[in-house]
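Budget justification aside, the reviewers requested a transparent look at the raw inputs and outputs of the sequence design task funded under Objective 1. We therefore reproduce one unedited record. The lines immediately below are the structure tokens for a 141-residue chain.
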């Protein structure tokens, strides 16, 4: 369970980033829904919204959090002999990549361009919107 003080700080920071007022009621609501979430994934989720510079509604945060949570779970290979159809996203539909904003480097998720990526929530940016040269750069390795 996330420590309530740490949680409150994070949500207050998030609201103040958008110059929005945050009160105890709001924090209680967020905490009641997300207190058993993974704090690092939650923080990463909030950071992603800062990157697209859009204040999200609660459901959007929850959706992205769940996607990121699923990716973190599916990152452990179930069958090491099974080759993924898409080696960019390993069939998760999401590409995790590093981005630096305001001097802070973090991990972000973007949609892959394959069929699995197409099935993902369109609210999320495609990898080509975030990093137009992603596939070009990857080919050099
Ligand atoms: Zn893919």
């Amino acid at each position: 369970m996330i420590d309530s003080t740490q949680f409150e700080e994070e949500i207050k920071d998030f609201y103040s980033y958008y110059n929005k007022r945050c009160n105890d009621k709001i924090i209680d609501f967020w905490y009641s829904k997300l207190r058993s979430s993974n704090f690092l994934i939650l923080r990463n989720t909030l950071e992603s919204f800062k990157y697209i510079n859009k204040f999200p509604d609660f459901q959007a945060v929850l959706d992205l959090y769940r996607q990121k949570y699923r990716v973190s779970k599916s990152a452990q290979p179930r069958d090491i002999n099974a080759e993924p159809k898409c080696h960019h996203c390993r069939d998760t539909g999401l590409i995790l990549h590093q981005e630096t904003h305001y001097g802070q480097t973090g991990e972000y998720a973007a949609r892959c361009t394959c069929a699995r990526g197409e099935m993902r929530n369109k609210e999320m940016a495609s990898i080509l919107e975030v990093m137009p040269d992603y596939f070009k750069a990857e080919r050099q390795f």
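The chain has two domains: 1-36, 48-75+87-141. Helices lie at 4-17, 24-34, 39-52, 58-74, 115-118, 127-130, 134-139. Computational costs for records of this kind are itemized in the attached budget.
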